[in-house]
Design a protein that fits this description.
By secondary structure, the protein is α/β, with parallel strands linked by helices. The chain folds into 2 domains: 304 residues, 3-Layer(aba) Sandwich (Rossmann fold); 88 residues, no CATH class. A 12-stranded mixed β-sheet has the order 2-1-14-13-12-3-11-10-4-9-5-6. A two-stranded antiparallel ribbon has the order 7-8. Helix 11 runs parallel beside helix 12. It is elongated, with a radius of gyration of 25 Å. The relative contact order is 0.18. The structure holds adenosine-5'-diphosphate and magnesium ion. The site of magnesium ion has 2 residues, from helix 3.
């Protein structure tokens, strides 16, 4: 056992040793020797996925911001941050960080350059079904079949019209080809009303799909006209062009003003929570596929930061249709991402609710204060057995204090995280303070009008 002074000296030694190895990711200072800088090996940290966990208010967002800034300081860094609560926009002050957002109801008319649309035609077949199909409907299998045939036909028409002959040979239902949803609805309506002549009796009878879409079509139509889903369905001409996907990929994987990558913070705060898993995994999948289809000598590594990951990457038995789709994309990235230079940084306050397949692929864990027993167990299960003692002091860590375990540091270390240069927005409303001294200026009439029109007018 090392005593006070020797421990401090030893910690300094570790600090010097890690610093000398290059690739420094500087988190803060060791608790044991608060003049010794705590440096992780940045290569090892991102090489095999990492995780930041801690109870609410323990300092996860600040730690994440600290890491994002360090990454952004590298001239050719490449990172996409899934920001669920508009928390990280202050980091946009960094010259290498841009802030984008998924179009909300207020962005449909005149969207700015920083607004992202994710047209429905980019969704894979299974993802689209999770969005529009009600699996409890007795006609669900028929609906899925007719929907898929119609979408294939619609895509084919586009390829023929644009003379894209090579694509015509090889396309599948999952190929990113814009198709006309209006045509799909028309065709399904026709099938739903179809009457045919019985060849035996010569009498008119219901067609094979007659009445099968009675609930499917209104469900699909209500999604299409809901402005909260506008980023998927309320599209301009530009969004329905085949090469929109090129623009989108550039937005996600390059910075706005130059042809270098950079850090992109994407604000998902206006995406309805029921489809959030599908939407986040759509972005992740596009990035993963672009990496897969890039020439290996050109492939530039990219990290995906998944904030509040328990919301869209839950354990399998707690996953609904939308989460199940997200899991299938993210489990693939967790398992194969390394081959293609895609790294995950999973951030969560509820590790016990996180998907264990994805968690078990994380080789570095930064754990801030954790008090819930189930959460402590979930984290400790990932650690080597001889670190059992960590469980006892996880609840005692101070705010912004963390234990770091993994191949990015020589030894498990207790670190006081340094505050980021630009702090994330706090997402806690100060009720008492607002009630006591806040300015009351809420325009309720305006809010009700916005609600009615589904557009936010300031
Ligand atoms: N490294 C740190 N140093 C000093 N204060 C911190 C640190 N990390 C967090 N805090 C304080 O704790 C608050 C909550 O941190 P935050 O990162 O938003 O927590 P979480 O994301 O885990 O809910 C911050 O607003 C800040 O006041
Ligand atoms: Mg947070």
């Amino acid at each position: 056992m090392l005593n006070g002074e020797r421990l401090t000296a030893f910690t300094r030694l570790i600090s010097d040793e890690t610093a000398s190895h290059g690739n420094p990711l500087s988190l803060g200072f060791y608790t044991m020797a608060n003049d010794a800088e705590a440096i992780l090996d940045g290569d090892a940290f991102f090489q095999r996925h990492a995780m930041i966990v801690g109870s609410t208010g323990s300092g996860k967002s600040w730690t994440t911001a600290r890491i994002i800034e360090q990454v952004a300081d590298l001239p050719k860094s490449n990172m996409v941050v899934f920001d669920l609560h508009s928390e990280y926009s202050p980091l946009g002050l960094h010259e290498n960080i841009s802030v984008l957002r998924i179009a909300g109801p207020g962005d449909i008319i005149n969207p700015g350059e920083d607004v992202i649309f994710l047209p429905y035609w980019l969704l894979g077949y299974e993802d689209m079904l999770a969005l529009v199909l009600d699996r409890t409907d007795e006609n669900a299998p028929n609906q899925a079949m007719a929907f898929s045939n119609t979408v294939i036909e619609a895509k084919k028409q586009v390829l023929i019209a644009e003379a894209m002959n090579e694509e015509l040979e090889t396309f599948t239902i999952d190929s990113p080809i814009p198709y006309d949803m209006g045509y799909v609805v028309e065709e399904l309506t026709r099938l739903n009303n179809e009457r045919v002549t019985n060849p035996g009796t010569g009498r008119e009878i219901n067609g094979p799909f007659n009445g099968k879409f009675n609930r499917f079509i209104p469900r699909l139509q209500s999604k299409r006209s809901d402005r909260r889903y506008g980023f998927l369905f309320n599209l301009s001409e530009e969004h329905l062009k085949t090469d929109y996907v090129n623009n989108l990929v550039k937005k996600l994987m390059q910075s706005t003003d130059s042809e270098v990558p950079g850090v992109k913070i994407i604000d998902f705060s206006e995406v309805p929570s029921d489809i959030l898993p599908i939407v986040i995994s759509l972005v992740a999948r596009i990035i993963f596929q672009v990496q897969q289809w890039s020439l290996s000598i050109e492939r530039h590594p990219i990290a995906l930061v998944c904030d509040e990951a328990h919301l869209y990457l839950p354990s399998r038995n707690n996953a609904g249709a939308s989460e199940a789709r997200a899991l299938s994309h993210f489990e693939r990235i967790a398992k194969e991402g390394r081959k293609y230079g895609v790294s995950l940084l999973i951030v969560s306050q509820r590790p016990s609710e996180l998907n264990s397949t994805i968690m078990s692929q994380c080789n570095n864990v930064i754990s801030l204060r954790l008090s819930n027993q189930a959460d402590k167990n979930a984290v400790c299960n990932l650690l080597p057995e001889n670190l059992g003692g960590i469980q006892d002091f996880l609840p005692t860590l101070g705010i912004g204090e963390a234990v770091v375990v993994g191949d990015s540091c020589l030894l498990p270390s207790r670190i006081k995280i340094k505050e980021p240069r630009h702090q994330p927005n706090s997402n806690s409303v100060k009720f008492w303070n607002e009630w006591n001294e806040g300015n009351y200026q809420q325009n309720l009439n305006n809010a009700v009008r916005n609600l009615r029109r589904q557009t936010i007018v300031e």
